[in-house]
């Protein structure tokens, strides 16, 4: 009768082991606990050894299959490859950095398990946040220029700044203008402009002549004295100049692209 019982147990073990692939996340055939690890007991029948070994293989395979490809009927060369990675529970704190090693883990952030990476130098990088790839936020109060017509979500437009040009400064600490403030010193230099005739005011130039004793006129006062006439006769040259307007660029505006200034909420 005892031999029959042993045979039934062995057959049952074979059915369990070769009954097919246990899919990841499936129920486990056996319970792995302290009692399980205590078997076989020293007093157990030697004939039960084969069954125990087969059950042990099965239990390891079922647990490996949670994240790994382990199919008794599948491709042997692929066994052990990751199907997915399951993190058991979020850590309470970042792991200690170890030389030449890196850690991929989850940590509890606002009651959610978020993915993190820590390198050998101790740098911690958060990878996910609220179901999205983590993007480090700009601190509240940050001001930025945007080449668009409306501020992104979470930003407020600074509508007191309008129709202005931007001046790049090295900052007040380095002896420049104060960043984030109005430009207060210095001048904007306009390019030089040479007047053309049409832009000159209409005007004449006076010219003196002298009447010679024998008639006619000469323009040289030296020759006039020699000829016996020292009284000049003044007359104006012909008028020139158009009196047209010219400017120094007071309405000058450079080619520009419109941007807006936004404040991070």
Quick recap of the structure?
The protein is an alpha+beta fold. The chain has helices at 2-17, 34-37, 49-64, 221-226; strands at residues 103-109, 112-118, 124-126, 128-129, 132-133, 143-146, 155-157, 206-211, 217-218, 232-236, 260-264. Helix 1 (2-17) runs parallel beside helix 3.
Task: Describe the secondary-structure layout.
Blueprint: H1 2-17, H2 34-37, H3 49-64, E1 103-109, E2 112-118, E3 124-126, E4 128-129, E5 132-133, E6 143-146, E7 155-157, E8 206-211, E9 217-218, H4 221-226, E10 232-236, E11 260-264
Antiparallel strand pairs: 1-2, 2-3, 4-5, 6-11, 7-11, 8-9, 8-10
Shape category: rod-shaped
Q: What does the main sheet amount to? A: 3 strands, antiparallel
Rounded to the nearest angstrom, the distance between the terminal CA atoms is 81 Å
- How do the strands line up in the largest sheet? 1-2-3
Strand percentage lies at 15-25%
Number of helices: 4
Could you list the spans in which at least 5 consecutive residues all have pLDDT below 50?
1-24, 217-226
CA-atom Rg in angstroms? 49 Å
Q: What's the number of extended β-strand segments?
A: 11
Sequence of secondary-structure elements: HHHEEEEEEEEEHEE
Class by helix and strand content? alpha+beta
Question: Approximately how much helix is present in the residues?
Answer: 10-25%
């Amino acid at each position: 009768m005892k031999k029959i019982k042993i045979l039934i147990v062995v057959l049952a073990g074979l059915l369990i082991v070769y009954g097919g692939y246990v899919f990841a996340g499936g129920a486990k055939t056996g319970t792995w606990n302290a009692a399980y690890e205590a078997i076989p007991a020293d007093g157990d029948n030697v004939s039960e050894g084969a069954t125990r070994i087969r059950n042990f293989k099965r239990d390891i395979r079922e647990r490996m299959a949670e994240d790994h490809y382990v199919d008794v009927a599948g491709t042997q060369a692929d066994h052990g490859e990751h199907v997915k990675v399951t993190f058991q529970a979020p850590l309470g704190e970042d792991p200690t950095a170890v030389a030449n090693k890196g850690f991929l883990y989850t940590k509890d952030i606002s009651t959610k398990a978020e993915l993190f990476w820590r390198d050998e130098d101790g740098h911690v990088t958060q990878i996910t946040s609220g179901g999205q790839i983590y993007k480090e936020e700009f601190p509240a109060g940050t001001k930025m220029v945007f080449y668009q017509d409306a501020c992104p979500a979470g930003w407020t437009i600074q509508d007191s700044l309008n129709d202005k040009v931007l001046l790049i400064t090295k900052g007040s600490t380095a002896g420049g203008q104060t960043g984030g403030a109005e430009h207060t010193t210095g001048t904007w230099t306009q390019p030089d402009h040479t007047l053309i005739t049409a832009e000159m005011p209409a005007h004449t130039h006076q010219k003196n002549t002298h009447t010679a004793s024998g008639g006619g006129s000469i323009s040289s006062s030296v020759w006039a004295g020699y000829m016996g006439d020292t009284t000049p006769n003044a007359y104006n040259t012909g008028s020139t100049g158009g009196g047209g307007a010219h400017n120094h660029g007071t309405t000058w505006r450079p080619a520009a692209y419109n941007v807006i200034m936004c404040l991070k909420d």
